[in-house]
UniProtKB/TrEMBL annotation:
<feature type="domain" description="DUF4440">
    <location>
        <begin position="10"/>
        <end position="117"/>
    </location>
</feature>
<dbReference type="Pfam" id="PF14534">
    <property type="entry name" value="DUF4440"/>
</dbReference>
<dbReference type="InterPro" id="IPR032710">
    <property type="entry name" value="NTF2-like_dom_sf"/>
</dbReference>
<protein>
    <recommendedName>
        <fullName>DUF4440 domain-containing protein</fullName>
    </recommendedName>
</protein>
<dbReference type="InterPro" id="IPR027843">
    <property type="entry name" value="DUF4440"/>
</dbReference>
Amino acid sequence: MTDDVAGQVIKAEQDRINCLLDVDPATFDRLHADEYRLCNPTGAVWTKSEYLDLLTSGRVAYRELRLTSDVDAIVGTDVVVLRYQCVIELTVDGADIPRHEAWHTDVYTNADGTWRCVWSQATGIMDLPPAAP
């Protein structure tokens, strides 16, 4: 049962990634809970409506958003937490954000038999400078 639920939510996450790349408002609405919040790598927090407005206006445009690791899942009764690494390349307000790696943590809840993302956190993976001698 746990593996089935994890598989369903991982599939929903891939669909969510595709809707961000394709700017598909109907799928976006279906896969994001009304109380959805994204904490992006800059630390800014966007609501569901703010994020969708940024996507549909073109102010945020993903050129690449691709998983580069397996997806780890913690499965509860009505909550699933996903964690994975990905590569992201995008434009924000006309500024190109170079291709970079990030960790993603996404929390899904089950309401009325539908898994929806309620929280997303993206954390950029930085190359650290060499240690001082």
